[in-house]
């Protein structure tokens, strides 16, 4: 955390331990807290391209919405350009990614249209096949997500927010929920046009092993492990951003926090004491829930605004974004493209998932095309694609940090 202290009318940012945030949070604004975080160049570089991949996904969904004729009018896309954050216009964005989008004139309507290139279309089919093959895994993900909820139920609109992150097919209401009536029950809520997804009574599983629990077991079973079972019995794996200063006092407080009792996300927390120890227990449980939520996503990342829709249902009585900032060794928060995206640090190495899955592999191929931009379009006499360097100001959307 950081607060501003005025010395001789000059602001000085002072680093403070994240574990003291409850006593000093009122002295700094949320924006200052975000700005003072330790940056990780690897995640920032990934998000620089990923923010444009999210826009590509939105356009791809519009193109594929009509399976019989997967094309889209550029004029129609222009009407939603602002909503999709295409800051320089729809046509300019399409032209930045010729490996993904193909422009052509519709002779009947006398309008420019766009469609996916053959390469991009193949990737979309690869992802669709991977999603279809992963339905058994998706079913378990939904069961786990509902099991974390205190009421074993979640609003359907919240799940719609993260359908892509969870690897759900776009028709998951019929292909996943309706196909498993022994597990899921969809019922009306008190609000109009709102539905609640519930676990069928008798299917609540409190014996799920979390990702952090599996890590503890694996770490202790290693012959050259530097930990023992008592030392990491309640701990989380920490990997801090490069260059982040870890003072002796900071390390001591992290060690103390690691030793606090751990209550897993699938275990019911009966008592919620408002004592200092009770607040710390609630915070550690909130970390456990957020950690497990991210582990259930395809890419081990999610937009903070989306996960906030689950906060009340998971019983998290804390600011979810500040929770990520308070634990920089477990989570990484990026604000590229005006999006607050949180990553599970331990799941990544050099900007890639350590344990990829087929759905991630397909999306990564599309990200590679985004990173390629306009390069590689021309072939030399040997048939090899020539790679030219573009001006960075032209190759990406300029929408700020």
From TrEMBL:
Segments forming domain PORR: 39-374
Superkingdom, natural source: Eukaryota
An example molecular function term from Gene Ontology annotations: RNA binding
Pfam families (UniProt xref): PORR
Protein's name in the database: PORR domain-containing protein
Top-level taxonomy: Eukaryota, Viridiplantae, Streptophyta, Embryophyta, Tracheophyta
């Amino acid at each position: 955390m950081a607060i501003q202290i005025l010395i001789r009318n000059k602001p000085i940012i002072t680093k403070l331990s994240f574990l003291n945030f409850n006593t000093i949070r009122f002295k700094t604004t949320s924006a200052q807290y975000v700005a003072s975080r330790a940056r990780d160049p690897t995640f920032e570089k990934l998000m620089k391209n990923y923010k444009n991949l999210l826009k590509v996904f939105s356009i791809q969904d519009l193109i594929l919405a009509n399976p019989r004729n997967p094309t889209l009018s550029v004029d129609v896309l222009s009407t939603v350009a602002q909503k999709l954050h295409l800051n320089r216009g729809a046509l300019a964005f399409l032209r930045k990614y010729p490996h993904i989008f193909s422009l052509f004139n519709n002779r009947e309507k006398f309008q420019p249209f766009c469609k996916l290139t053959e390469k991009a279309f193949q990737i979309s089919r690869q992802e669709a096949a991977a999603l279809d093959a992963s339905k058994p895994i998706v079913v378990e993900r939904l069961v786990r997500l509902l099991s974390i909820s205190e009421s074993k139920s979640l609003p359907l609109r919240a799940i719609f927010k993260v359908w892509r992150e969870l690897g759900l097919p776009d028709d998951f209401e019929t292909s996943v929920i309706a196909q498993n009536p022994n597990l899921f029950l969809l019922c009306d809520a008190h609000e109009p046009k709102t539905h609640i997804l519930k676990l069928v009574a008798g299917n609540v599983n409190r014996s799920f092993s979390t990702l952090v629990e599996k890590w503890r077991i694996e770490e202790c079973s290693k012959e050259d492990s530097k930990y023992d079972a008592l030392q990491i019995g309640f701990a989380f794996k920490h990997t801090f951003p490069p260059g982040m200063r870890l003072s002796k006092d900071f390390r001591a407080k992290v060690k103390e926090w690691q030793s606090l009792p751990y209550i897993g996300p699938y275990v019911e927390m009966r008592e919620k004491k408002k004592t200092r120890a009770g607040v710390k227990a609630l915070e550690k449980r909130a970390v456990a829930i957020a950690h497990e939520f991210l582990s259930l996503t395809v890419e081990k990342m999610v937009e903070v605004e989306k996960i906030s829709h689950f906060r009340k249902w998971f019983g998290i009585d804390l600011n979810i974004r500040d929770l990520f900032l308070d634990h920089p060794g477990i989570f990484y928060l990026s604000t590229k493209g005006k999006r607050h995206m949180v990553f599970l640090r331990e799941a990544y190495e050099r900007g890639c998932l350590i344990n990829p899955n087929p759905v991630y592999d397909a999306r990564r191929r599309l990200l590679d095309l985004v990173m390629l931009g306009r390069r590689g379009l021309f072939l030399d006499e040997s048939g090899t694609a020539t790679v030219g360097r573009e001006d960075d100001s032209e190759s990406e959307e300029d929408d700020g940090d």
